[in-house]
Amino acid sequence: MGVTLSDKAAKHVANFLIKRGKGIGLRLGVRTSGCSGMAYKLEFVDEVNEDDLVFESAGVKVIVDAKSLPYLDGMELDYTREGLNEGFKFNNPNVKDQCGCGESFNV
């Protein structure tokens, strides 16, 4: 399955990489954190690590480390604007519960 980006998210990431002037894609991962146990981490990638898996979605490379993939497999990353707020939205079918603030989740 892998991880995909919506068209809006892919456009946002591609534009940011152009402004940044370097980078090959976006790394998605998880870390232990928050009241529900896990939190997402996002960072721009300049090089792929040995244990990384690379997916391409809407022309953008999405890099996921092997340990995070079971928690992210099948997820779509979207980019939304709601009123004055904008940001990434994680549509993850693996999530069983998340905290009230939306910062952490568990599977």
Draw up the topology in text.
Elements (H helix, E strand, L loop, with lengths): L3 E2 L1 H14 L4 E9 L3 E9 L6 E6 L2 E6 L3 H4 L3 E7 L2 E7 L5 E2 L6 E2 L1
In short:
This protein has 107 residues and is an alpha/beta fold. It has two helices and nine strands; from the N terminus they run βαββββαββββ. 17% of the residues lie in helices and 47% in strands.
Description:
- By secondary structure, the chain is of the alpha/beta class.
- It contains 2 helices and 9 strands.
- It has a 4-stranded mixed sheet with strand order 3-2-5-4. It has a 3-stranded mixed sheet with strand order 1-6-7. A two-stranded antiparallel ribbon has the order 8-9.
- The longest helix has 14 residues, at 7-20.
